[in-house]
Amino acid sequence: MPKARDTSMLRLDSKKLLIAMAEKGMEAADLAQATGISKNIIYTMRRGFYSKLKNVGAVARVLEVKVADLVEDGSNVLETKVSDLIEGDSNVIPAGTIGQHTSRNETE
Fold this sequence. Notes:
By secondary structure, this protein is mainly α. It has helices at residues 14-24, 28-35, 39-46, 53-63, 67-70, 82-87, 104-107, and strands at residues 9-11, 50-52. It contains seven helices and two strands; from the N terminus they run βαααβαααα.
């Protein structure tokens, strides 16, 4: 599996993306046009490679689903708002860091 170079990227589940596209009756070219994302990036997302948050958010918005509905299971994304991803909200928690809280006393 490809490794993310940036923790602010997500990997979509290919089957979940294809199902959402089918439910909307969209092909990759249709989705690319509706989102303003290139077809190559849509195809890359369909293959399950890591994708930028703004692209994932745009796809979820057009398909009218939650980001969590498209993300591969185990990516630690819970109820993420699409608007946060599109606008680049700094409150988005990077995948893989949820539940990794340490207090000052634990590190000393």
